[in-house]
Design goal:
It is a single chain. By secondary structure, this protein is an alpha+beta fold. 16% of the residues lie in helices and 41% in strands. The strands form 3 sheets. It has a 4-stranded antiparallel sheet with strand order 3-5-6-7, with no helix packed on it. A two-stranded antiparallel sheet has the order 1-8. Strands 2-4 form a two-stranded antiparallel ribbon. The longest helix has 23 residues, at 2-24. It is elongated.
């Protein structure tokens, strides 16, 4: 009987050690990633349309489109009001102007792109530098 109890206690001690190792072996967090594809803008429009982030591809259950936002600014100036998705040439001087689109993931800047447009008589007349396609690489721990 004593041998059986000792064997039982030995198994419990081994199981306890395994459980302790399982708890102390570091984080068990899983990192998930997503690549969100932002298409290039190569055609001029009046006003310039940047559209909602929900139109981009690559969203999934771990990364809803509401986690990413963007701001627009003209010629290095202050960002336009939050939620702005179009830029109008009305009021801009004739010549070239650079528009910057800065992307944010949960409020933190993660990437940006620029395009240069020509303005004539309060209208965008052409793109002299396209807005390149981007891949926004997102990651988080679950």
């Amino acid at each position: 009987m004593k041998v059986q109890i000792k064997r039982f206690l030995g198994i419990l001690l081994l199981a306890g050690a395994a459980l302790a190792v399982g708890c102390d072996n570091g984080s068990t967090d899983t990192t998930v990633t997503a690549d969100i594809s932002v298409p290039a803008i190569t055609a001029v429009a009046n006003p310039m349309q940047f559209g909602p982030v929900s139109d981009y591809t690559g969203w999934d259950d771990n990364f809803p489109h509401t986690d990413v936002t963007y701001t627009l600014s003209i010629d290095g100036g202050d960002p336009l009001p939050a939620g702005t998705t179009t830029v109008d040439a009305d009021g801009l001087s004739n010549g070239t102007h650079t528009i910057t689109q800065t992307f944010y993931y949960n409020g933190k800047a993660i990437d940006s792109r620029n395009g240069t447009l020509g303005v004539v008589s309060n209208a965008f007349a052409g793109i002299t530098q396209n807005f390149p396609a981007l891949t926004l690489s997102l990651s988080k721990k679950l």
